[in-house]
Amino acid sequence: MSVGEAGFRDSLIWHSSPVDWCEGNYKIVSNVAEFYNTFSNLIFIIMPPILMYLFRDYAKKVNPGIYLVWGLLIIVGIASAYFHATLSLMGQLLDELSILWVYTLTMILFCPKRKLPNFLKSRYVFSGLLLTIGLGASIMSVWKPYINAFALMTLIVPTVYLLLVELERVKYKESEVFSLGIRSLVLMVCAVTLWLNDRMFCEFYTSMKITYLHALWHILIFLSSYTCCVLFSYFFVKLERPYMACQLSYWPKNTVLNAFGIPYVEFRRKSLDD
C-alpha cells in the first residue's frame, strides 16, 4: 500500500480528527460518536428543498445558481453529520470544505458590485479570483486541520459588514427587510457565542452537564445563514435588476407572526410606485 493510500485510509478511521467537541461520545447510540451534534444537522437537510421550491421563480428569472446554494447547504448537513457521527478527519474536512464553498458561491452570486474594487468590477474576474482563493484554501485545509474552524469563523466578518451596509440603506424605507436582517444578526451572534463556549470552555460546561451547545449552534447558524442568503438575493435584485419588482414574502402565507414563517423573494407586477 502506498503512503497516499495509507493516509487516505487513516483519514476514514473514527476519531482520526484532531477535533472533539464537548458532547460525550457514544452516550446515546453505540455507533454514533456525538448523537445531538449529529442529528441537529437534520435542519440542513430538511429546509433547503423547501427553499428550492420557494425560489423557483428566482432561479428562472434571476439566477439558477440559487439552487446550488441550497444544494450545498444540504451537503454541509450531510458532511457535518458524518463528521460528528465518526469524528474522522475525512468527515471534518468534508464538513469544513462544504462550508467554505457555500460561502464562496454566495459571495460570487450576491456580493454587491458597487463594493468591489475598481480592478474587480467585472463579476467574472471577481468570481475567478474567489474560485482561485477557494481552491487554494481547500488545498491548505489539510495542513493544520485543527485551525480550520477558526479560519472559517473569520468569514463572518465580511458577511456582517456587507449585511450592515445593506440594512443601513433600507433602514427607514423597508422596515420588514430591516427587521429580518436584525433577526439574522442576532441569531448569528447567539450561534457564534455557543460555538466559542463549547470549544473553549468545555470543561466548565461539562461540569454543569451542559454538553449540547454545539448542537444548538448547528440550528441557529443554519437559521441565520439561510436568512442571510435570502436577504442578499433580495438586495441583488433591488440593486442590479431594478426593472424587476420583488418583495420579501413568507411561507406559509398569512402567518400571524412572520418570525415563524420561511422568508423568500417573491416577484410581482411592477407598479407606478416602484
Question: If you had to describe this structure to a student in words, what would you say it looks like?
Answer:
- The protein is mainly alpha-helical.
- The chain has a two-stranded antiparallel sheet.
- Helix 10 runs antiparallel to helix 12.
- The longest helix is centred in the last third of the chain and has 28 residues.
- The N terminus is likely disordered.
Tags for this entry?
274 residues; mainly alpha; two-stranded antiparallel sheet; 12 helices; 2 strands; 64% helix; 5% strand; disordered N terminus
**Considering DSSP H and I runs of 4 or more, what fraction of the residues is helical?**
55-70%
What's the count of strands? 2
Order of helices and strands: HHHHHHHHHHHHEE
Class from secondary-structure proportions = mainly alpha
Question: Average pLDDT, to the nearest integer?
Answer: 88
Strand order, sheet with most strands: 1-2
**CA-based gyration radius:** 20 Å
Beta content comes to 5-15%
Biggest pleated-sheet summary: 2 strands, antiparallel
Anisotropy-based shape: globular
Poorly predicted sequence stretches spanning 5 or more consecutive residues:
1-11
Amino-to-carboxy terminus distance: 67 Å
